[in-house]
Amino acid sequence: MIRVQAMPFDPGGELNIFTAHTAGAGAVVSFTGIVRDVAGGLAGMEIEYYPGMTEKALGAIRGDAMQRWDLADALIIHRFGPLQPHDVIMMVATASKHRKDAFEAADFLMDYLKSRAPFWKKEQTSDGEDWVASKAEDENALNRW
Question: What is 2-130's CATH number, 3.40.50.720, 3.20.20.450, 1.20.5.440, 3.90.1170.40?
Fold first, then answer.
């Protein structure tokens, strides 16, 4: 399942629903990302995306994870629009028979989302607005896959 949405969501509720529909799984791993504050104080963040293109890209990487690991299911939820510090920004969850596949697949999905997913983030601070650039450490993390 892939969702790109403006509305807030409850990670605990989403995890309960996801887990309830993963018959045969012995492990569920989830990661929830929140908007973190930055030095100088984050007033807010704006996330942009291209409808259709972004969902297609997320679907492809989810499919890749489903093929690489023995997964019962994988979930990606990502928000767009204006966000504030401490808002939930995204979530991934993976389910498999064994924990190793679930952990590795979730890590893989997070590395992809951090460096390649077609989202554009602009931070607003007391110093002004800046687009968030990709970081070498994020690229290096993705290269291990």
Answer: 3.90.1170.40
**Model pTM greater than 0.85?**
yes
Three-point CA angle 142, 45, 145, nearest 5°? 5
Distance from C-alpha of 27 to C-alpha of 120, rounded to nearest angstrom: 32
Tens of pLDDT along the chain (145 residues) come to 999 999 999 999 999 999 999 988 999 999 999 998 876 688 899 999 999 999 999 999 999 999 999 999 999 999 999 999 999 999 999 999 999 999 999 999 999 998 889 999 999 888 888 888 777 787 787 778 8
